[in-house]
Amino acid sequence: MRKLVYYVGVTLDGRIAGPGGEYDFFPSGDEQQSAAYSNWTNALFPETVPTAYRAAIGLADAPNRHFDTVVMGLGAYRPALDAGITSPYAHLRQYVVSSTLKPDIDPAVTVVPDDPLALVRELKREGGAGLDVWLCGGGRLAGALLPEIDDLVIKNYPVVAGAGIPAFDGAFDPTVFDVAERTAFPNGVTLTHLTRR
Predict the structure, then answer these.
(1) How far is CA 113 from CA 8, 45, 80, 169, in A?
(2) Name one Pfam family in it (predicted).
(3) How does DSSP assign the chain, residue by residue?
(4) Does residue 61 come out as left (phi exceeding 0), alpha (psi in the -120 to 50 range) or beta?
(5) Residue 129, pLDDT score
(6) 10-residue stretch averages of pLDDT, the chain, 197 residues long
(7) CA gap 45, 60 in Å, rounded
(8) Preceding amide of 75 cis, omega within 30
(9) Residue 181 CB neighbour total at 10 angstroms
(10) Which of 30, 98, 165, 183 has the greatest number of C-beta atoms within 10 Å?
């Protein structure tokens, strides 16, 4: 069965974005540190780079390594939409969970108005190339999908936001994950892969 993997950047106080959805305050280090970190994460997860930027960083023809499908909430979809991009991950099957978004926003995007748990359960049962489903945000959607999240890949940035969108925004539901692997970078970021116990 395919896995649902929440791959996301998080501040020290558990925020995936600021109060207005901003994420430009996440520190990336000096130019050399930033390039080394970006090159490493982009090589490991090339499919998480939006289609519009893939050619510029040498990933135009990079095959998907981990995911063939992305599920996101409206908040995670909004930055692309605001930039006039309706299909931000054209190299993946795209699902946006939103009760307010028009269903015909783009032929390559499936808008799911409700019941994200049913959607994810259906996606996980699919056969295929053995690639998983990427949950790219946001916090409310992650909270709703917590029962189905199999793995977490958390990029912890050395910054406190103080306020903003939490990584998980849902009911109190303590869920234990085990650390499978952790990598530290010179820019202060740690990338931790966790699996559900």
Answers:
(1) 23, 28, 19, 18
(2) RibD_C
(3) -PPEEEEEEE-TTSEEE-TTS--TTS---SHHHHHHHHHHHHHH-GGGS-HHHHGGGT-TTPPPSSEEEEEEEHHHHHHHHHTT-S-TTTTSEEEEE-SSS-TTS-TTEEEE-S-HHHHHHHHHH--SSS-EEEEEE-HHHHHHHGGG--EEEEEE-S---SSSEES--SS-----EEEEEEEE-TTS-EEEEEEE-
(4) alpha
(5) 74
(6) 97 97 94 96 97 96 96 96 97 98 97 98 88 96 98 98 97 97 97 98
(7) 13
(8) no
(9) 10
(10) 165
Structure tokens at 17: 């974005």
Single-letter residue type at 72: M
β-strand 132-137 against 15-17: which pairing, if any?
Answer: unpaired
The structure tokens 């390594």 sit at 65
What pLDDT score does 127 carry? Answer: 76
The amino acid occupying position 3 is K
Token pair of 143, please?
């909270």
Query: CA 143, CA 137: separation in Å to the nearest integer?
Result: 10
Residues 189 and 191: their CA atoms lie apart, in Å, by 7
pTM of the predicted structure, to 2 decimals: 0.96
